[in-house]
Each structure stands twice: as structure tokens, then as C-alpha cells.
Amino acid sequence: MTLSAADFTFVSTLVRREAAIVLAPGKEYLVEARLIPVARQVGAASVAEFLANLQRRPNPADQRRIIDALTTNETSWFRDREPFSALTDVVLPELVRRPGANRKVRIWSAASSSGQEAYSLAITLQENLPAGWSYEIMGSDISTEMIKRAEAAEYSQVEVNRGLPAAQLVQYFERAGAHWRITQSLRRNVSFKLMNLTAPLPPMPPFDVIFLRNVLIYFDVATKKSVLRNVARLLRPDGWLFLGAAETTIGIDDNYERVAAGRTSAYRVRSAVPAGAARKG
């Protein structure tokens, strides 16, 4: 049965209020498909019954189930590759050379889903930082289910086949029954936090690099402005921001400048862009 207009309005309003995600008309089938397992989980006979019960008796736990179900969690290891190449070839060499370097690199994977991006970043730093340097990766996501999965650090064969080279699988994973588990030596440098990027962000030390990829595309312009402004406060003055290939700060937040980073581009706070950095229009 197709989701009713009233039920779609209820869900889209909830998701926009709680997560700033815009569900445009025409997404009714997607919403219903994502909520069928949720309805079954709570013992409802249908999505319509589940939503009717929720509207009569608001339940924060069930509202959170809806948010989790409708959060896009598409991810893979070393997704899109070029940002990771830029990190290796451009960003880390600059961070290592900076004056007064404290020999520690902090990176935030700001929409880490089930953890593949955060652990990919950890592998990249593990293999490319000079001796004597340390690193810290923090992953965050709005989905409680994804945070649990990321912290468990266990992945199916299908999941590790998505972008993970065999050499890294052998070195950084161990068998866990039918799954693969990240080794403790890598996990100890990675932590995860439940976080809504559209809400006030908790106090955190500044980051050298922030991966905020494939997130802004789900927000309206006002929300994008707010997120980018908050992110800028957590980026070191000489730090780097990586967005998704279809995302940009141009026309949204003039505080950032797009610069070349290998075969891709990144964003830096304008006052911190080195005079010799290659700018991109």
C-alpha cells in the first residue's frame, strides 16, 4: 500500500525537524520501504498502523527508529579514492612540515556511517605518517545503529570487498566467525560519537582535517550555511575540509576557499590559505 499524503507529511516533518533532512514529494515509496522493517520490529501490522500509533502516542524511541531508517548510509572503503590520495600526497606532508608541529594529527569523519571512512583514514595515517607521529580519528553519525556498528568494527565479506585492498585486509583485520574485525592496534586510535550536525556541536579540540562528504546534499541552503559555519570553528586555521564531489561551499559560505589538492579539491578558511596554494574557481 502506498504511503498516504498525511503519513508522508508527518514523517518528512519529523525528519526535517530532528535531522534537517529534506524529503521532497515523490519519496513516498522510499519512506515506506525503509519503514516496513521498523513497523515489524515494533509489532505493527503495517507502516500505516505504526505511524498512526506514533501520532496518537509520541514515542522518542520510535521517532529515533524512523531517523535511523531514513538516514542514508551508503559507504565503502576508501570511497572515491582521490580524497585519500590527496591526504597522502598533499595534506600530510604539509602538516608534518608546519612550524611548531606537535607530532599529532586529528581528523574528523563527520558522517562516518558504519565506520568504513574513519577506519580508511586510520589506515592511511598508519601507513603514511613519519615515525614519532601519532594520530586520532573521530567518527560521528546521527544514527545510533550506525554508531554501534562502527564501534563493533566487524564487517561482512561483502562489505570488505567494497574498496578494501587485499593487503590491508590481511594486515588490519582478523577473522571473527563469518565476519572480519578491525585489529585492536588500529581501533585504539579511532572513536565514535553520536552527533547531529545540524544541532549545536559539543566542545571538541580543533581538527587538522575534516571529512564532511556527501552530507550537505541532503540539507537546504540555510542548514548548509549553519553546518559549514559550525565546522569552521572546529577546523584548525591551517586545516583542510573535504566535501563530496557534488558539494561545494561556493555561493554558500564565502569564509572558505577551494584549493587544488592533488587530483581533487579541498576547502580552507580564506585567511589561512597559503599564498602559493593553487586556487580553484
UniProtKB/TrEMBL annotation:
Entry-linked SMART domains: MeTrc
MF annotations from Gene Ontology: protein-glutamate O-methyltransferase activity
Keywords: Methyltransferase, S-adenosyl-L-methionine, Transferase
UniProt-listed GO biological process terms: methylation
Stretches assigned to the CheR-type methyltransferase domain: 1-272
Pfam families linked: CheR (PF01739), CheR_N (PF03705)
Protein name: protein-glutamate O-methyltransferase
Catalytic activity: L-glutamyl-[protein] + S-adenosyl-L-methionine = [protein]-L-glutamate 5-O-methyl ester + S-adenosyl-L-homocysteine
EC number: 2.1.1.80
InterPro entries hit by this protein: Bact_Chemotaxis_MeTrfase (IPR050903), CheR_C (IPR022642), CheR_MeTrfase (IPR000780), CheR_N (IPR022641), CheR_N_sf (IPR036804), SAM-dependent_MTases_sf (IPR029063)
Keyword Transferase: yes
